[in-house]
Amino acid sequence: MNIPTPHQALDLTALPTGVPHFSAVFDAYRQMRVGSTLEVQSSSELNSLHRHLTGVLDEDFLWTPLPAEAGTLRAQITKLEAFHVCCGACG
């Protein structure tokens, strides 16, 4: 698997929808470090993932927005959580 490095783009629009989509994003997110930059092309997809994570883990502020070019959303990872409490919907 391609492990994201700081400033590496994760193009969520290129991933399949449904469970494989969330599974792929979860896998990438889990392998990032605090301070890494998550960059995506779809703010709605990142917001969906954020809602899911905060709903399952009851945590907020998993990342903070960063300035980005038009059509891209960048965020810096501020917190990584143990995912053994996940509901399993992500894969």
Q: What does the model show?
A:
The protein is built from 2 helices and 3 strands. It has helices at residues 19-30, 43-57, and strands at residues 37-40, 63-66, 73-77. It has one domain (12-85). It has a 3-stranded antiparallel β-sheet with strand order 1-3-2. With 91 residues, it is an alpha+beta fold.
Tally of contiguous helical segments: 2
- Chain-averaged pLDDT: 59
Outline the biggest β-sheet.
3 strands, antiparallel
Shape: globular
Proportion of strand residues: 5-15%
- Percentage of helical residues? 25-40%
Residue windows where pLDDT falls under 50 for at least 5 positions = 1-9
How many DSSP-defined strands?
A: 3
Please provide the ordered H/E string of secondary-structure elements: HEHEE
Radius of gyration: 12 Å
The strand order across the widest sheet is: 1-3-2
Structurally, the number of domains stands at: 1
Structural class: alpha+beta
- Could you give the distance between the termini? 16 Å
Summarize the structure.
The protein has about 90 residues and is α+β, with helices and mostly antiparallel strands. It has helices at about 20-30, 45-55; strands spanning about 35-40, 65, 75. The chain has one domain (about 10-85).
